[in-house]
Amino acid sequence: KGRVFSGARPTGRQHLGNYLGAMLNYVALQEDYDCIYCIVDVHALTTLETTLDLRQNTYEMALDWLAVGIRPEESIVFVQSHVPQVMELHTYLSMVTPLGKLTDLPTFKEKAREQPHNVNYGLVGYPVLMTADIVLYKADLVPVGVDQAPHLEFARETVRSFNHRYNTQVLIEPQMKVTQVPKVIGIDGQQKMSKSLNNHIELAATPEETRQRVMQMVTDPQRIRRSDPGNPDVCNVFSMHKIFSSPEQVEMVNTECRRAGIGCVDCKKLFAENLNHHLQPFRQRREEISQNPDFVWDVLKDGAKRASQIAEATMVEVRQAIGLP
Ligand code: TYM
């Protein structure tokens, strides 16, 4: 069996972007791979102004993962900082990383623009730590949204540099795996869905909250009046219908929107209804698991124990490959 690794920052309740872009693959890949899923709290520190919510956000995210169908009896679910070998590997990898390559990455430039007052050393090294996550567990495959593509390419290059520099084969070049919807647009209809932009829809929201959020979604900007014909091809609500509605409904929306037969309000109501229906089993399962909060922490503790064994085995090889005395 090959090995899968993926991580996500502890941002609390997960949204449709995380779900469609990554979590669906987390679940599906369990059939054919040994999977490791990591809550990357150290990565979160690169951007957080306060850590007050870190514990709660870690818990909420783990709960979402378990509710969506990650099976902790098979897969490893753990918190990054619980297995500190990753920080050691990060340091070694940093020695084969040209600084300019990090500062040239589009993901870095974006963050540096967002937090000009806090362009810290850890933020620059973010992709190095992410590479360490992946290669510490010798992952073959990394399920992520397409926004992570530059990081994955960086990871592959870093593995090649390391193996070349120390004339070894210990580190494995990972492949990236995206879902059918690798980039989900937020309710603003423009930018990628993300919690920091507050344009997201949470999986664990109540049906009523979900409806309200959906009602705020931006549709075809050219369609101003109800009587104007719309263009589904440029409408984010329509792209959601294609995922969550039946083929007949998609066909109906497609035709009726173009001839102003259905208005945006009714179109959104239909989507909200289908989304709530789709998420119902997830929400119920989440409710059940949360009856016992200790369960989630026990899963994470057990996960860290299992992850540590793999991590230490890799580090023994890495230290030797480098030639540390
Ligand atoms: P993060 O925490 O931003 O997001 C977690 C996962 O959700 C995906 N995602 C999306 N996919 C499609 N559309 C969206 N709007 C959207 N928003 C989020 C992300 O692509 C990601 O797969 N750097 C990573 C965390 C990380 C990691 C790793 C991932 C650290 N180490 C090792 C894989 C392997 C991040 O910040 O993801």
From TrEMBL:
A molecular-function term among this protein's GO annotations: tryptophan-tRNA ligase activity
Catalytic activity: tRNA(Trp) + L-tryptophan + ATP = L-tryptophyl-tRNA(Trp) + AMP + diphosphate + H(+)
One family name in Pfam for this protein: tRNA-synt_1b
Membrane-spanning residues: none
Enzyme class: ligase
Gene Ontology biological process terms from the UniProt entry: tryptophanyl-tRNA aminoacylation
Entry EC number(s): 6.1.1.2
The protein's name: Tryptophan--tRNA ligase
Taxonomic lineage: Bacteria, Bacillati, Chloroflexota, Anaerolineae, Anaerolineales
